[in-house]
Every structure is written in structure tokens, then in C-alpha cells.
Design a protein that fits this description.
Length: 199
């Protein structure tokens, strides 16, 4: 991405993926329960918003521009997201002191990396091949804006297709945001520059 140009959808999503890896690494490297909990909360916040925003913006674009192939790809993506959401749902309320926490975090990140590989090797090249740079940048902007209104916790039993997901997200988001107010998070200065402005 050029410093003067907005990101494409691939660049925006790839940037999120890097941040998610960083948050997981910070959980693993933190030495105090308090810090591990803060980074668990940050990972939950970022991953829940990322997944739903993909489902509401990128997946419909894939189905529109790629036709039946896009439908098949997004069906695979939704199945992968479901596994990630179920892991995240358990992790988001599990104490990092639990003996179940580290194996669950590892499983979550393995499931997430399987999904990331599918997106980077299958979804993104096909979608970007159908979009102009301007269309891709507009989609990235929509993706980022959507994250501002989505739930901040995993809700694996919620619908994962527009428009049902839109409605479910609008119901869950205010409750999640209230919970965020009473939860511990990393200090703003500890976050990657990209995510500081989203708090």
C-alpha cells in the first residue's frame, strides 16, 4: 500500500490478520494474568469485529463479482469462520490461568491460519482480479466502517448471512460495548498504530 493511497480490500484484511497474530503473541508472551487477560480481550474485540465485517462486506462482494464460484468460496469461508467463532466464544470468557486456555488459543489460531490461507490463496486473488483498484479501495473502506458498528464479542449461534446477520449484530453490539466498558484492555500506546484510532 502506498502511503498516499487508501488500502485495497486485500491490504485491509491482511493488516488485520497481522494484528491478530500480534495480539495472540502478546497473550503468549505476557507474564502476568492481568496482561494476558487484557490481550485476550483485545484479540476477542478485534477478531469478532473482523469476522463479521468480512461476512457483511467482502463475502457479498465475492458472491456478486464471482457468481457461483463466489458462493462456493464464501460457503467455505463461513464454515471456517464458524470454527473460529466457536473457539473464540470459549476463549473470550476463559481465564488465561486455566489449563484449557493455551491449547484453546493454539486451536483458535490454527483454525484462523487455515482460514487466512484460504483467503489469501483463493478469495483475494479472485476478487481483486474482478475489481478495479478504486472498487477495491471502496470495499476496504466499507469493511473498516462496518467494524465500527459490529459486535465486539463472538456470537457463534448468530446468523452469518446478510441481512439476518445485520439485524443480529445490531442487537448484540450495544451489549458487547457495555461489557467492553468494564473489561480491561491494553493501553492505547501498546496497540498497533492502525487500531489506536478505532478505540
Amino acid at each position: 500500500m502506498s502511503p498516499t493511497q487508501p488500502p485495497t480490500i486485500s491490504e485491509a484484511i491482511s493488516g488485520d490478520h497481522k494484528s491478530l497474530d500480534e495480539y495472540a503473541d502478546r497473550i503468549r508472551s505476557s507474564t502476568s494474568l492481568e496482561d494476558k487477560t487484557k490481550w485476550r480481550n483485545q484479540l476477542t474485540w478485534a477478531l469478532a469485529r473482523h469476522a463479521i465485517s468480512e461476512e457483511l462486506t467482502m463475502y457479498p462482494a465475492m458472491e456478486k463479482h464471482l457468481g457461483e464460484e463466489g458462493v462456493q468460496l464464501t460457503n467455505t469461508d463461513r464454515e471456517q469462520h464458524q470454527a473460529v467463532k466457536e473457539d473464540l466464544y470459549k476463549l473470550q470468557s476463559l481465564s488465561p490461568a486455566s489449563s484449557e486456555f493455551s491449547p484453546l488459543l493454539d486451536r483458535l489460531m490454527t483454525d484462523l491460519h487455515d482460514h487466512i490461507k484460504h483467503e489469501s490463496e483463493e478469495d483475494m486473488p479472485r476478487l481483486e482480479g474482478k475489481l478495479s483498484r478504486e472498487e477495491s479501495q471502496a470495499l476496504a473502506k466499507s469493511f473498516e466502517r462496518t467494524k465500527m458498528i459490529t459486535p465486539t464479542r463472538s456470537h457463534p449461534s448468530a446468523p452469518n448471512r446478510p441481512y439476518f446477520e445485520n439485524f443480529a449484530a445490531m442487537l448484540a453490539a450495544p451489549i458487547d460495548r457495555f461489557k467492553d466498558l468494564v473489561s480491561a484492555f491494553p493501553d492505547k500506546e501498546e496497540l498497533p498504530e492502525k487500531h489506536r484510532s478505532m478505540l
